[in-house]
Automatic annotation (TrEMBL):
<dbReference type="GO" id="GO:0071897">
    <property type="term" value="P:DNA biosynthetic process"/>
</dbReference>
<dbReference type="GO" id="GO:0003677">
    <property type="term" value="F:DNA binding"/>
</dbReference>
<dbReference type="GO" id="GO:0006281">
    <property type="term" value="P:DNA repair"/>
</dbReference>
<protein>
    <recommendedName>
        <fullName>DNA ligase</fullName>
        <ecNumber>6.5.1.1</ecNumber>
    </recommendedName>
</protein>
<feature type="domain" description="ATP-dependent DNA ligase family profile">
    <location>
        <begin position="386"/>
        <end position="568"/>
    </location>
</feature>
<keyword id="KW-0227">DNA damage</keyword>
<dbReference type="GO" id="GO:0005634">
    <property type="term" value="C:nucleus"/>
</dbReference>
<keyword id="KW-0547">Nucleotide-binding</keyword>
<keyword id="KW-0067">ATP-binding</keyword>
<dbReference type="GO" id="GO:0006273">
    <property type="term" value="P:lagging strand elongation"/>
</dbReference>
<dbReference type="GO" id="GO:0006310">
    <property type="term" value="P:DNA recombination"/>
</dbReference>
<keyword id="KW-0436">Ligase</keyword>
<dbReference type="GO" id="GO:0005524">
    <property type="term" value="F:ATP binding"/>
</dbReference>
<keyword id="KW-0233">DNA recombination</keyword>
<keyword id="KW-0234">DNA repair</keyword>
<keyword id="KW-0235">DNA replication</keyword>
<feature type="region of interest" description="Disordered">
    <location>
        <begin position="483"/>
        <end position="510"/>
    </location>
</feature>
Length: 701
């Protein structure tokens, strides 16, 4: 982290006019990230880029973060560029002097619009005017202007902004990334997923705060050895992630970071706020009821119906303004005017403002009978007029996160639930609390009956939630023993350290799992989902298809096998886990081949830096990560070929799946929600436990 090495080869690159950080700097960072396979290098490059900006031109930090994460606004603010591919083609023709035919040949040859821009710029033989070096701020402002330009004549204005950007782009690489940014396909997913980690580290190195968790100067910090540094990173990363989970908007986070740095004050200044959605808490999967009962031994919990609808986060302020957000933080107030109209009826006298969560489910208006998710998805998405609502819905509330100006996230679920039940009024078939029963592990009969009644009522299964924050020393001890069991694979000195390091966060998260607080953006054992399917079939994984080989014989026209990967959340890389040839129909194969057509927009020019795969024969094409596929498998094996979860169960080997089988596409999941290396390692451990002690785990239900 010596300043001279901030970003290799940046001499003379970093400032443009007026001391503003140049776009060349950001481009250099993209090129470096794209050219390496090392996760550590990717994170370090990003950290170094951010340090340069924080120290040299802090006013460019926010635009840098938006551009590097390939967005210009959070999901709940709809700011679309609204550019067609033709705007880019037109600009390339005007600026680089290409005719339509040459451009088409280039598209056919390289596929990706950014790569076309790279080639086109290389061939440019004239300039219309002297280019003015692009700055990060300037590019970001141009994007915002494109998005905000609407109405008559907007096409021309947008076109002239695109032309200007390409005119001023210095050299082929800048052109490539300008065009990829305009197409909203930066193709460097790793940057997006590691941004919060990189921000916390960059701030620590640039402006070490005088905080309890860090009483070190910058000089001391940069001299620390890797292991010591890794420990220093932990708390700041937690703080930045916690802020972003409660208020997922860089427009809010970055100014406060610049003001106070990474310290506990950040949590206060950038916390939960009305009309800004927090990232939802997520449920952990359990295989079946007996596993759930084993996990929650000794605890009071509640079982709730797991309704099959759409998750909704409802915000209401003291003046009665209502905002409704989706599971993915999109604003959907317009979709549910009937729910908005319902709020004054359900809000009791003692309630001024609140944030509540629930599942919106299609129901029969008269009888209240639950309808399928399919029925709900027939409902129009935008600008629904209240008199025009065709599909009646009921909101089944399950949590209360904020009340009368106060966040409730740190309160135990029993208390939050009590407030929800007592302060809000039921409206038949339109608003009610989720159906639930409270239980302990001793009530297995009751729980089984409740599970059956849930599935009979067309629910997907049940959600099981810890009720109290009671620390339970017995359970804590057991969790500790459990974890120690898994430290055995690496006995030797060097390996042992690595495993210990990996176990540490998990140990913490298990401890956390004993609490009944609301943990935004976390998937902990305090919320367990038991679905109908899990109780009859094997575990499944949500994997990302990343590459394919030409099929043989009948399958010669298709991609078969397809290579699949899990996510590594810490590094943003994708770790290959298996090849799959099973579960596909010919219709699926064909659609898949069309989607990932050679030279098409979803196929990359070569192996991307963020993919970890060391297998023998290289794939014929590399897919751009686009989809999530739900996969079944017979079991998980330790593999010398695949890199998935490497370092988590063995130092040198990864994990792979035996007999992987495609089940379905998860269109409702983005690639950021695909299964992680830690999740895979967790499934492997469970499998090993089952194998060594089947009678302990299997209970009668
Ligand atoms: P996840 O949302 O956990 O990432 P997923 O998209 O696969 O995963 P599910 O496995 O269906 O979702 O389970 C979680 C979802 O169940 C929640 O996001 C919520 O929409 C829904 N749900 C229904 N009933 C409840 C309930 N009582 N408590 C919490 N969530 C519920």
């Amino acid at each position: 982290f010596k300043p001279a090495n901030y970003v290799a080869g940046l001499q003379g690159l970093w400032t443009a006019e007026g001391g503003n950080a140049s776009y060349a700097l950001l481009t250099r960072c993209f090129v470096l990230v794209n050219s390496t396979q090392s996760r550590i290098k990717i994170v370090d490059t990003l950290v170094n880029l951010l340090r340069v900006i924080i120290e040299g031109d802090p006013s460019s930090l926010l635009p840098t973060v938006w551009l590097a994460t390939n967005s210009i606004s959070p999901p709940y603010i709809s700011l679309e560029l609204g550019l067609g591919g033709s705007a880019i083609s037109k600009a390339l023709k005007t600026i680089c002097g290409l005719d339509g035919r040459t451009l088409k040949t280039l598209y056919d040859k390289v596929g990706d619009a950014g790569d076309v821009a790279f080639e086109a710029k290389k061939r440019q033989s004239f300039t219309l005017r002297k280019p003015k070096p692009l700055t990060i701020k300037g590019v970001y402002q141009s994007l915002v202007k494109i998005a905000n330009t609407q109405g008559t004549g907007s096409g021309e204005i947008k076109q002239s902004i695109v032309n200007k950007l390409l005119q001023d782009a210095r050299g082929p690489e800048e052109s490539r990334y300008i065009v990829r940014t305009l197409c909203q396909h930066l193709r460097i997913g790793a940057v997006k997923t590691t941004m919060l980690i990189a921000l916390s580290r960059a701030f620590l190195l640039s402006r070490p705060p005088n905080a309890d968790f860090l009483l070190k100067s910058q000089e001391e910090l940069v001299k620390l050895k890797k292991e010591a540094l890794a420990e220093v990173w932990v708390r700041p990363e937690e703080i930045v992630k916690a802020c972003f989970a409660k208020r997922p908007n860089y427009n809010d986070l970055i100014p406060v970071l610049l003001e106070v740095g990474v310290c506990d004050e950040l949590l206060v200044k950038c916390g939960l706020t009305l009309h800004i959605p927090l990232r939802p808490m997520l449920g952990s999967i359990t295989r079946d009821l007996s596993e759930m009962l084993t996990k929650l031994q000794g605890r009071d919990f509640t079982c709730e119906y797991k309704y099959d609808g759409q998750r909704a986060q409802v915000h209401c302020d003291a003046r009665g303004k209502v905002s409704i957000f989706s599971r993915h933080l999109e604003l959907m107030t317009d979709k549910y005017p009937d729910l908005v109209a319902l709020i004054p009826k359900i809000r009791g006298d003692e309630v001024s403002s609140f944030i509540m969560e629930g599942e919106v489910v299609a129901v029969d208006k008269e009888s209240g009978e639950l309808k399928t998710f399919q029925t709900l998805s027939n409902r129009a998405r935008k600008d629904v007029a209240i008199g025009n609502v065709k599909v009646a819905v009921c909101l089944f509330a399950f949590d209360l996160m904020y009340l009368n100006g106060e966040p409730l996230l740190d309160r135990a679920f029993r208390e939050r639930r009590e407030l929800l039940r007592s302060l809000f009024t039921e409206v038949p078939n339109q608003f009610t609390s989720v159906k639930s029963i409270d239980a302990t592990s001793l009530d297995s009969e009751t729980v089984l009956e409740f599970f059956k009644s849930a599935t009979d009522a067309k629910c997907e299964g049940i959600m099981v939630k810890i009720l109290d924050n009671l620390p339970n020393p017995k359970l804590d001890e057991e969790a500790e023993k459990d974890l120690l069991k898994h430290e055995s694979p690496a006995k030797s000195g060097k390996g042992k350290k690595k495993v210990d390091k990996e176990i540490e966060p998990e140990k913490k998260s298990r401890r956390k799992a004993l609490l009944a607080t609301y943990e935004p953006d976390k998937r902990l054992d305090s919320w367990l989902k038991v679905k109908k399917d899990y109780s009859t079939t094997f575990d499944t994984l949500d994997l990302i298809p990343i590459a394919g080989w030409h099929g043989q014989g009948r399958k010669a026209k298709f991609w078969s096998p397809v290579l699949l990967a899990v996510r590594n959340e810490e590094t943003g890389s994708l770790e290959a886990v298996c090849k799959c040839i099973s579960g596909f129909t010919d219709t699926f194969y064909k659609a898949n081949k069309d989607f990932y057509a050679e030279g098409g927009e979803h196929v990359l020019g070569g192996k991307p830096g963020y993919v970890e795969y060391e297998g023998g024969y290289p794939p014929d094409v590399w897919f751009e990560p686009q989809e999530v596929w739900e996969m079944a498998f017979a079991d998980i094996t330790i593999s010398p070929t695949y890199t998935a979860a490497i370092g988590l169960v063995s130092e040198e080997k990864g994990l792979s799946l035996r007999f992987p089988r495609f089940l379905k596409k998860r269109d409702d999941k983005s690639i950021e929600e695909a299964s992680t290396n830690h999740f895979l390692a967790g499934l492997w451990r469970k499998q090993e436990e089952r194998a060594s002690a089947p009678q302990e785990i299997k209970r009668e239900d």
